[in-house]
Specification:
It is a single chain. The protein contains 18 helices and eight strands. The protein folds into two domains: 148 residues, 60s Ribosomal Protein L30, Chain: A, CATH 3.30.1330; 251 residues, Orthogonal Bundle (2-methylcitrate dehydratase PrpD). α10 packs antiparallel against α11, α11 packs antiparallel against α12 and α15 packs antiparallel against α16. β4 and β5 form a beta hairpin. It has 427 residues and is α+β, with helices and mostly antiparallel strands.
Length: 427
């Protein structure tokens, strides 16, 4: 029997090359196109607001700096290899890129946003001279809910637990407490630890590539070289996390280990506990267990805020997970200290808006790493924000539900305005 942690690792922690939303659009188009014969003649994509927003301005790996969901869909449709999953852009042949770009240039690819959708929703209709096929992803970047060919159903997947509740592991997360999550960490298997270590190595490699670019991580390193910043654990974690994000958002063809089905969140959730743990000489096995907790907390928060929220998931989900992980490394299953860490990060950067995936995400990742480490250190010394302040609750669970309510109800109009501004620029 698999544990809750193993379910989270299976469904939400996996290697991804490029931003996870455009690659999900490409996967949907590829799944539909694989059912067709002949040359692709047209593509129609419809997405939820979050997917639309995250694919608008982020570069696609192996695409020469080109950006956007439309090109991602066209690539998926001409490559027709959905079995590659989140690494669909890996080793993209030049001929297929040329064919995809020609489809977009000829106006044969179109995309619309469905404002009524919440959570991941991607509908991809692909046409050829011999017919048309449709693939629908719902609830997950890789969950095929429906496949049709010329109007005939090829596959229809019943969503486990129903549309609203989601699969069993998400239902279990929703009912969990932080004490439950702490207990999961004690059940980490040797295979789980090896997988977690592979994620560390993957994200460190991405950071190394990102430092070659003259972007956020590079200039933080430059400030250190010139003596304006001190080289320490705080600056090191911030610049490496930022550099890994620089690489992803620039379309550098390197994978990262995601968390909560997000690559940038994976960068924060993995690298912050790893680098802090190493700096404080925490045993490696304990660091890896803390990273397991980081993934769990990230996924736990997202069952309340939603997969693609109007507020930055690197801040209120991955940043919180990383902070709790650092606290656990030194204090163990201390619910009081963990609550202080949760409260302090959310009080600090809970209002950080998500305006889509792009190079500026590296700045938000750096801020999230900074806040996570500072909040953890305060919590370890029994200091932090309490329910006496603002929207903070009486427990970690209550604080998370409060920020989720603000995000899903209070910021609904804000998200739409952001989308309208972004869409106007592209049109």
């Amino acid at each position: 029997m698999t544990t809750l942690l193993q379910e989270v690792l299976k469904h939400e922690v996996y290697p991804a090359m490029g931003c996870t939303e455009p690659v999900a659009v490409a996967f949907a188009a590829a799944s539909a196109a694989k059912l067709l014969k002949g040359r692709i003649t047209g593509i129609s994509i419809r997405t939820d607001p979050g997917t639309y927003k995250n694919g608008l301005a982020v570069a696609i790996p192996n695409a020469g700096g080109r950006k956007g969901n439309l090109l991602a869909a066209a690539i998926g449709a001409v490559v027709r290899r959905p079995e590659l999953g989140a690494e669909l852009f890996k080793g993209l042949p030049a001929a297929r890129l040329k064919e995809a770009a020609a489809l977009v240039k000829a106006g044969r690819a179109a995309i619309t946003v469905d404002y009524s959708r919440r959570g991941i929703y991607i509908s991809a209709e692909v046409r050829s001279a011999n017919g048309k096929a449709l693939c629908l992803l719902e609830g997950s970047h890789k969950q095929v809910a429906l496949l049709t060919l010329n109007g005939r159903t090829v596959l229809k997947a019943a969503r486990p637990g129903g549309k609203k509740e989601g699969p069993p592991y998400k239902q279990a997360l929703r009912k969990a407490t932080f004490r439950d999550l702490f207990r999961q960490v004690e059940k980490v298997s040797a295979a789980d630890l090896a997988y977690l270590k592979a994620g560390v190595e993957m994200n460190l490699a991405a950071a190394k590539e990102g430092l070659k670019l003259k972007k956020v991580g590079y200039y933080m390193e430059d400030l250190i070289r010139k003596g304006y910043l001190k080289r320490d654990i705080l600056s090191g974690a911030k610049l490496k996390a930022a550099a890994a994000t620089d690489a992803r958002m620039a379309g550098v063809p390197v994978p990262v280990m995601s968390s909560g089905e997000s690559g940038n969140q994976g960068v924060v959730a993995v690298l912050v506990p790893w680098l802090v743990g190493k700096a404080f000489s925490v045993p490696e096995k304990r660091i890896l267990r803390s990273i397991a907790l980081s993934h769990l907390v990230n996924s736990y928060i997202k069952v309340f805020t939603g997969e693609l929220a109007p507020i930055c998931g690197c801040a209120v989900a991955a940043g919180v997970g990383a902070s709790v992980a650092v606290v656990w490394q030194r204090a163990g299953a201390d619910a009081k200290k963990a609550t202080l860490a949760v409260n302090t990060v959310i009080s600090d950067i809970g209002g950080m808006l998500c305006d889509g995936a792009k190079s500026g995400c590296a700045l938000k990742v750096a801020s999230s790493a900074d806040s996570a480490i500072r909040a953890a250190w305060m919590a370890l010394n029994n200091e932090g924000i309490t329910e006496a302040e603002g929207f903070i609750g009486s427990s970690a669970e209550a604080t998370i539900q409060n920020i989720a309510r603000i995000s899903s109800l209070g910021m609904d109009k804000v998200d739409r305005i952001i989308l309208e501004i972004m869409s106007a620029k592209t049109s």
